[in-house]
């Protein structure tokens, strides 16, 4: 039996004179995300002439190309024929371990989230920190990773009135997603805690800590450990722990 190809799993959409969208579905799903990431990997490995950038999203891959070098039809034909048997939905390149001080001033919504979920704050923290989150995509702010999937009891809607200022490092959730605000900004997600880890540094060789296809595990820490890690972060001497993917 012939192997499935990208054409068997996706549809192709034109995006102006310099882009093609490879769309794999219409839901936020780890299997769909794995197909997006695998296709991006195959395109990078193929080093296609004229392809200038790949942008993974929840359910599709945006392929930018130089129309003076190639065309949408050429790009589409090549990608469509690439083999794409089902990939492991849980496959992650590596998992970042992010220290978090839950509750207090940095997590003003923790008590409400726990009460709404019908559990203690300690149980809510254990539940939130007990998952390995998939980095589906980056967006909204530089380095802002959309992390799924938040455990069902903690899936609450956005705040009715967004905050004008959410501090950088805030760990937040809404619906199926969890995130860390890399920069101070307005925001309507519910704040559970804070991390001293920098998720975006324009001066770094790799400005964004996270990339689509990574995993994130939140590690609860106490005030003293948070302060120690924050001091190392300010001095540029803290290295985020990373687990190899299983």
TrEMBL record:
Gene3D superfamilies: 3.30.1360.40, Cyclophilin-like
One Pfam assignment: CT_C_D
Listed GO MF terms: 5-oxoprolinase (ATP-hydrolyzing) activity; ATP binding
Domain Carboxyltransferase: 10-210
EC number, UniProt record: 3.5.2.9
Hydrolase among keywords: yes
InterPro entries: CT_C_D, Cyclophilin-like_dom_sf, PxpB
Ranges in coiled-coil conformation: none
Key words, A-Z: ATP-binding, Hydrolase, Nucleotide-binding
Enzyme class per UniProt: hydrolase
Protein name (Swiss-Prot/TrEMBL): 5-oxoprolinase subunit PxpB
Species: Acuticoccus mangrovi
Gene: pxpB
